[in-house]
Description:
Number of strands of chain A: 18
Oligomer: homodimer
Strand content of chain A: 25-35%
Largest sheet of chain A: 8 strands, mixed
Largest interface: A-B, 35 and 35 residues
Amino acid sequence: MSLVVKKFGGTSVANLDKIRGVVKRVSTARSSWERIIVVVSAMAGETDKLIRFAHALSPQPVGREMDLLLTSGERIASSLLAIALDAAGIPAISLTGGQAGILTEGAHTRARVRSIRPARILKELNGGKVVVAAGFQGVDEFDEETTLGRGGSDLTAVALAAALEADRCEIYTDVDGVYTADPRIVPDAKRMEQISFEEMMELASLGAKVLQARSVDLAAKYDLPLVVRSAFDEGEGTLIIPESTGIESPAVRGVSCDSKQSKLTISAVPDRPGIAAALFGQLAEKSIMVDMIVQNVSENSLTDISITVNSDMAQHAEQIMVESNESFGGATISRDDDIAKVSVVGVGMKSQAGVAARVFSALARSRINIMMISTSEISISVVVRQADSENAVRVLHKEFIG
Amino acid sequence: MSLVVKKFGGTSVANLDKIRGVVKRVSTARSSWERIIVVVSAMAGETDKLIRFAHALSPQPVGREMDLLLTSGERIASSLLAIALDAAGIPAISLTGGQAGILTEGAHTRARVRSIRPARILKELNGGKVVVAAGFQGVDEFDEETTLGRGGSDLTAVALAAALEADRCEIYTDVDGVYTADPRIVPDAKRMEQISFEEMMELASLGAKVLQARSVDLAAKYDLPLVVRSAFDEGEGTLIIPESTGIESPAVRGVSCDSKQSKLTISAVPDRPGIAAALFGQLAEKSIMVDMIVQNVSENSLTDISITVNSDMAQHAEQIMVESNESFGGATISRDDDIAKVSVVGVGMKSQAGVAARVFSALARSRINIMMISTSEISISVVVRQADSENAVRVLHKEFIG
Lengths: 402, 402
């Protein structure tokens, strides 16, 4: 029996009219799918309101209480949707994270999914009901409520789809798919009909923000076809699949930009083993996620190491590096917040040489200075001044996509 | 170890400032009590908002979904209070109905408490925490969420206090106690320092609305001292106890008035056994709660039966009686919505004769016509015209209380 999991974000259930819109979508989908699971986020604004309340009452609200507080948003949205489906003659039942069998680790506010206990969902699906699962939440081994972190409803949808071997998982959002670049920067940007998991992973983590990277990773692991599409129109969206089907993929599929980056440089470090390890060990211990890392060629046994981190963490990271520096002796720490990271991504790069050269010369022709370079098998990222970033995206989009 | 259960209603946690007010009360209470359980309702207005949403989406929302929807309100209030207590340096944990071990029957939207499984609460109390329990909710044997009906948070508080053998249960509300009459009608009305369970039961079910009758009943069953007091001032409130302590209780403790009553009369019924049974059987089957029942002395083997019901149900009750009447033949059904029920209540009536006579003569002196009379061991109720009801309350309050 065919099974689809459809996930609707907060803007798709923001008010009663939008909830009625979801009912219409589910009603239509019943002619194509034998079994349907709907995963919902909290009504737009509700989670932020509850977070604001909690922070007004406490500078550091306890994680366990935050989880119990925030899961209410998704519970409300899922019951309301079940009520609306039932009123439209579609048998439906809403299930909380615990009832839906989503078991997680105990780490509050950012729990990882441990396993899915599918008995209850299967019973309801087999009874002919549309199951409406509250996203973003689960329970730990002691039956304590947990949440999966921001964007966690995507993860709920993908995890349920993987566990129940759904035919596909559809993420409804306020954009109509994944684009070759941000259409606000590049008006010519095109919606991609298909993209590979690998490419989507690079785009998601490089700032495309359409899909949470953890969810793409999980879908890839289970070879689960994932679709990103608009909740508000009938477009086909973008299909994310194990491998692009074209025999010759284009070298570059998309161009992304992340302006929320800061660059930290530790200059004139003695170039001997163990120093980088000590530095990054300190950062990891304080949960600072390092994005790009570039080490310059050493001169006179001294070397420069530059890293980029999310701007929110830049000050904290700088402080840690200054403290570490005391043990190296004599190095200089500098921080630069006026940067952006621009990346080109495409599985085709694997087999096509010269992409890097084309990136550099295209940017040079437009007199855009490159401050750092980092490459992976399927992406090339450059750090540029923030003032140059939008132009860099346009130049690279024109160069590779048109 | 001493234990108190304190219940705060929706107006007492209506906003963040009020929640901080509850924190102060709990903080003060810690010097008098070794263990504290706080039960909270949803923030004022939240439950009504969710009900409005559900009814906008469906003419008849499914009970199971309503319960899942509405329990969120109390969960939010209890987590926020736990966060605020913790921020004030008071170790606290919030528990949902299920976590607090409140097991109910499966009847959604009006479940009865079946038993309390106290292990988790005891563990948290023994660990030195203030337990904040979400009111109004429980789980049934299948772990489905249930609600206890309107006013159910009082019941949560009393049930927990009874099961854990608390020293007392305090109900914080927006009035500062139980009065000898409604102070809006009788400016001289006095707050009672003590009242017996029996008297409170009569007053609660006769329309005093301070405490839900089911909660008083449960507290009486377990001899649990219950206090009604203001959430907004420091008054002592009213203590509700097994028996009034005075050796000679006054005949009348309070005067109450219920204007939401309608009178239904079936006239000229053949006076033979079984007819009343058939009529009330029909009403009970349709869940119509009958309040007063008066059958007149029969003449020529014909009799009149008058009943009063809540005005909300009057039309439905009339319809049922008209249908039943077809099988009796020849009787007339009439309905009168312009009535009110005024009652005097007091355990002392048991031993003092002549209270009824004083009621009737006091009303007669003020030319208030009595339409129906009904008595119990500790109360006398009369039905009068609505226009006369407030005056009747004042006259009777003056006659018996002063």
